[in-house]
Design goal:
By secondary structure, the protein is an alpha+beta fold. The chain has helices at 49-67, 100-121, 124-129, 131-147, 150-158, 163-188, 194-202, 208-228, 230-236, 239-242, 258-261, 273-276, 286-289, 310-322, 334-339, 343-350, 353-375; strands at 4-9, 12-17, 72-73, 76-77, 79-82, 87-90, 93-95, 253-256, 329-332, 379-385, 392-393, 399-409, 415-422, 428-429, 434-437, 442-451, 459-469, 474-484. It has 17 helices and 18 strands.
C-alpha cells in the first residue's frame, strides 16, 4: 500500500500519492526523451517553374546586396549609413536622425506588405526572398558542387573517413567560409565606405568595430545557412508561429489534392487506375526528398512549410513521366479544393475584402511617404534662445536678445541662407544675416536681435525667424520669443 494523505480542496477529498508511478507487472520500463533528436535533411535538387523563380530572386537579391555598396554617386558611395557623422546617404537623398519618421514609414510598409502577401499567397517571403532561404540555397549549391548530389552526399556521410571525403568536406567548408566572410565584409561596407574598408582589409588595418561586425555577420551566415538551415525556419523564426493568424481558406498555399491523389501506391505507367483502385499519387516520396524542411506535404498544411513550391515542381515532373495531368500538388486554396473551383474562380476569391483593405492601407502609406519625400526641404533649421545671455541694454540704448540658429544643409552643395525676423515694430538683426553652410554639414550661428528701448511693453513677445535658401528659392519660418526686461 502506498503512503497516502487525504487533503481537501473546496470540500472535495483528494488523495495525493507520494509513491512513484511504476509500470504494470511484467512491462519493461521505457526512457522517454523530452527532446527530438535532429535528423539531417538532404534536400534533393529540383527544376521547374517555382525553382526558376526562386533562383531568379536569389540572383536579384544578391546582385543588389553585394553590388550596391560599390556604386558611386557623385564623389561618394551611393548607399552609405554613416553612423559616425549621423547621416544616411541613399543615392541623391541625405537623411539625418531627425528624419526618423521615414524609417518608421519603411517599417510600416514592410509590415503591411508582409500581411498582404501572406493573406494572398501564404509564406511567399519565406519561400523566395527571405535571407535564410536565399543563403541556404547558395550554401546548398556549394555543397552539391563539392560533394555531389543528394544520394552521393548521403552515401559519403555514412561511409568512413577517407582522404577523398576529407578533401571534399574541406573544399566545401572553404567555400562556405569565403562566402560568409564576403557577406560580412559587404554588410559592414554599408556603414563604412567600402573602398576604404577594402584597403584596410588588405593592409589588415581594420578597426575593432569593423573586425567584430565582419566576423559576427560572417559567423551568423555560416551557422544559419550552413548548419541550422531548416531549424531556423521551424524553431527560431516567429513568423512560422503566427502565420496561421493571417491565413484563411482563401489563401493560396502549396496543397496536395487528396481527392485526386488517394489512395496512393506504386504502379506501372500503363496500369489502369480504376482497376487498381488507386489515386494519382505514385507514392514516390520525391515531394519529401526535395522539401527543404523535410515535411510531407501530403499530410496537409503544416507550420514548417515555407511555401517554396519545390514539391509542386517535382510532382509535376512525376506526373509528366507517368502521363497524368499536372497539379496534384499546386498553389491553390482550401475552398478551391473543397468546391472544385476553376482557376478564375480561385483568383476571384483571393481578392477578398481583407486583401483589399491591406492593399488600400499600403497604397496610402506608400503614397504619403513618397509625397513627403518629394516635398521635403533639403535643409533644416532650429532656433533657440541663448540661455547663457540674458536680455540686456546694448549700445545706443537698444534692447538686445541673442539667439542661436542651427542650419543643417541636407543637399550636396554649399548653400547660402539669409535670416530675417518679424513680429515686433522696429525689431532688427544686429549681426550678419547671411549664413553659408557646406554640403551635408550643419552650423550653429549666433544672431543678435535689437529693439528700440520704448519699442514694446516689458514681458515676452512672439517673433518669427525666416531663413531663406537663396539658391534654392525656399524658406523656413521658426517661432521664438523676444524678452523685454522690466
Amino acid at each position: 500500500m502506498s503512503d497516502s494523505k487525504p487533503t481537501v480542496l473546496k470540500n472535495i477529498p483528494i488523495t495525493v500519492s507520494k509513491a512513484p508511478i511504476e509500470p504494470p507487472p511484467g512491462a519493461d520500463a521505457e526512457m522517454v526523451s523530452l527532446y527530438q533528436a535532429h535528423k539531417k535533411i538532404y534536400p534533393r535538387s529540383v527544376s521547374g517553374l517555382f525553382s526558376r523563380w526562386r533562383w531568379a530572386l536569389v540572383f536579384l537579391t544578391q546582385i543588389v546586396f553585394y553590388g550596391l555598396p560599390w556604386l558611386e554617386w557623385g564623389q561618394r558611395q551611393a548607399v552609405l549609413f554613416d553612423l559616425g557623422a549621423r547621416r544616411f546617404y541613399i543615392f541623391g537623398l541625405v537623411l539625418y536622425p531627425q528624419d526618423f519618421i521615414y524609417l518608421t514609414g519603411i517599417l510600416v510598409i514592410a509590415a503591411y506588405s508582409l500581411f498582404l502577401f501572406t493573406a494572398v499567397a501564404g509564406r511567399l517571403w519565406c519561400g523566395y526572398a527571405c535571407p535564410q532561404t536565399v543563403y541556404t540555397e547558395m550554401f546548398l549549391w556549394l555543397e552539391k558542387l563539392a560533394e555531389g548530389d543528394r544520394s552521393m552526399r548521403m552515401r559519403r556521410d555514412a561511409a568512413p573517413w577517407t582522404f577523398e571525403k576529407f578533401g571534399r568536406k574541406a573544399a566545401k567548408q572553404f567555400m562556405w567560409v569565403v562566402l560568409a566572410l564576403w557577406t560580412g565584409f559587404t554588410f559592414v561596407g554599408y556603414f563604412t565606405p567600402i573602398h576604404l574598408l577594402a584597403l584596410e582589409f588588405i593592409q589588415w588595418n581594420l578597426g575593432s568595430w569593423e573586425i567584430f561586425w565582419t566576423f559576427f555577420y560572417a559567423f551568423a551566415t555560416y551557422g544559419n545557412a550552413g548548419f541550422m538551415r531548416e531549424q531556423v525556419c521551424k524553431y527560431m523564426c516567429p513568423y512560422a508561429r503566427f502565420q496561421s493568424a493571417m491565413f484563411d481558406k482563401d489563401t493560396l498555399i502549396v496543397t496536395y489534392d487528396k481527392d485526386r491523389g488517394e489512395p496512393r501506391g506504386a504502379r506501372s505507367k500503363k496500369a489502369d487506375l480504376s482497376t487498381l483502385n488507386l489515386g494519382a499519387c505514385v507514392d514516390c516520396s520525391l515531394c519529401v526528398q526535395v522539401c527543404p524542411t523535410g515535411i510531407d506535404i501530403r499530410n496537409g498544411l503544416q507550420y514548417e512549410c515555407i511555401g517554396c513550391g519545390a514539391c509542386a515542381d517535382v510532382c509535376d515532373t512525376v506526373m509528366d513521366k507517368v502521363g497524368y495531368p499536372r497539379g496534384l500538388v499546386k498553389y491553390t486554396t482550401e475552398h478551391a479544393l473543397e468546391q472544385k473551383w476553376t482557376k478564375a474562380q480561385t483568383i476571384s476569391h483571393v481578392f477578398r475584402p481583407r486583401v483589399l483593405i491591406y492593399t488600400g492601407i499600403l497604397a496610402v502609406v506608400v503614397l504619403s511617404m513618397a509625397t513627403s519625400l518629394a516635398l521635403r526641404l533639403p535643409f533644416k533649421v532650429d532656433v533657440d534662445r541663448d540661455r547663457g545671455s540674458l536680455a540686456r541694454i546694448a549700445e545706443g540704448g537698444r534692447i538686445e536678445n541673442v539667439f542661436r540658429i542651427q542650419v543643417m544643409n541636407a543637399s550636396e552643395s554649399t548653400q547660402r541662407f539669409h535670416v530675417s525676423v518679424e513680429g515686433m515694430p522696429g525689431l532688427s538683426i544686429a549681426s550678419d544675416p547671411d549664413i553659408s553652410v557646406e554640403s551635408t554639414q550643419s552650423r550653429w550661428v549666433p544672431v543678435r536681435l535689437q529693439l528700440p528701448y520704448e519699442g514694446a511693453e516689458p514681458g515676452s513677445h512672439t517673433i518669427h525667424f525666416k531663413i531663406a535658401a537663396t539658391e534654392l528659392g525656399k524658406s523656413v519660418t521658426e517661432k521664438s520669443v523676444f524678452i523685454v526686461p522690466r
